[in-house]
Amino acid sequence: MAATLTLRTPIRGLERLDRAGIVTTLRANFTDLGWETPCILAALDDAPLHFEALGQARLPTWSRGRVVLLGDAAWATSPFAGIGATLAVTGGYVLAGGSLPTLTRTPPSRPTNGACAP
């Protein structure tokens, strides 16, 4: 069995708990959910366990000068979604489309006498 439990909480520092503290926290938060949850919580005693904290930085702007955040640096997606590269390519495509009019330059004019420009 493999399971993922996601806990949203304002409490910081849970990732520094020992295994017993993590298991206690998970059981306290998920014990009343029913369905397969009791089996998952019971398996925490012997199962391999990975626990980490995730955070989100909220920025007032996604760009500064010529530097722009794209992909999972710009959008709050789940690390388990596996779409960071897709978001980066899509973001680049949209950014290029929005920037193209300002980046397009008028070609230099040709001399009117038919001579080639140097």
What is the compact description of this entry?
The chain has helices at residues 19-30, 37-43, 84-103, and strands at residues 63-64, 67-68. It is mostly helical. The protein has a two-stranded antiparallel ribbon.
Fold blueprint:
Elements: H1 19-30, H2 37-43, E1 63-64, E2 67-68, H3 84-103
Antiparallel strand pairs: 1-2
Tell me about this structure.
The protein is mainly alpha-helical and 118 residues long. It folds into two domains: 1-55, no CATH class; 63-103, no CATH class. The protein contains three helices and two strands, in the order H-H-E-E-H. The protein has helices spanning 19-30, 37-43, 84-103; strands at residues 63-64, 67-68. Strand 1 (63-64) and strand 2 form a beta hairpin. The chain is elongated.
Strand order of the largest sheet: 1-2
pLDDT < 50 stretches: none
Instruction: Count the DSSP helices.
Output: 3
Tally of DSSP β-strands? 2
Mean pLDDT: 81
Radius of gyration: 26 Å
| Amount of beta strand | under 5%
Helix content: 25-40%
Overall form: elongated
Instruction: Please report the distance between the alpha carbons of the first and last residues.
Output: 73 Å
Main sheet? 2 strands, antiparallel
**Helix and strand element order:** HHEEH
Domain module tally: 2
Q: Classify the secondary structure makeup into a structural class.
A: mainly alpha
Features:
118 residues
